[in-house]
């Protein structure tokens, strides 16, 4: 073999290996649109842009941390996070497919207006307003910090580990808090959420879930009604 043809063989070999690798790597977007291995397309429930479906109780996925989402898929697949609706879907995906689809959703723009939501953390709150009070002040008489301390002002989420809460369906938020109370969801980082959830009453869970579910609409209302914005488009 001449040095030249050797180089050509080497090069085409490398090229084939790269192409084969690209074909092997699962495509998260494709999984979201078409499903995979018999698992249904994610978009049918989680929306075309991962925005979720509040009326049906399907959570938003767009813009949430990739590692968090992948861990949830794994937990729903192995049953440590009990989810009758997601178990079979999560199980059908290989670990590489779970990672790929988690990365795809993490990379989609969040539908949340983070500036408006963060501004809600400054709104005046009365203690009788249980949901808003828990979210912004906590319940220190029983060692519950404000949810916003970890989930960000207005529940917009913080980094990889603290998912956003704003705009998630109320039934979904309440369901997760009760799952931690009943040991039906893994404790997650440092067991922070079981410690919070087990200290909340049923009424507090319902109130704080409704508060975060309605927060994007409330934030929009305040922003468009504030005198500084009169005459401006929303
Ligand atoms: C039939 C509707 C449906 C389909 C299809 C579906 N999901 Fe879900 N998904 C849900 C529901 C409902 C939940 C909330 C979990 C629960 O209530 O048990 C959820 C939860 C999740 C979560 C956890 C979110 C969080 O914030 O913790 C992830 C991640 C997820 N789904 C990813 C996917 C992916 C990826 C696909 C496609 C391969 C998919 N889902 C397909 C309904 C669906
Ligand atoms: C000390 C920090 C901390 C505080 C305070 C906190 N959380 Fe969390 N929360 C977390 C972490 C960490 C996770 C991710 C858990 C995991 O990875 O499984 C989480 C996850 C959640 C989830 C799941 C989101 C999803 O997409 O499935 C809900 C719902 C939630 N928290 C609600 C609340 C509420 C309501 C409060 C206030 C009453 C609160 N949290 C206070 C740290 C905190």
From TrEMBL:
Pfam families (alphabetical): Cytochrom_C, Cytochrome_CBB3
Coiled coil: none
Protein's name according to its UniProt entry: C-type cytochrome
Ranges where the Cytochrome c domain occurs: 23-216
The keyword Heme belongs to this UniProt entry's keyword annotation: yes
UniProt key word Hydrolase: no
Signal peptide positions (record): 1-22
Keywords tagged on the record: Heme, Iron, Metal-binding, Signal
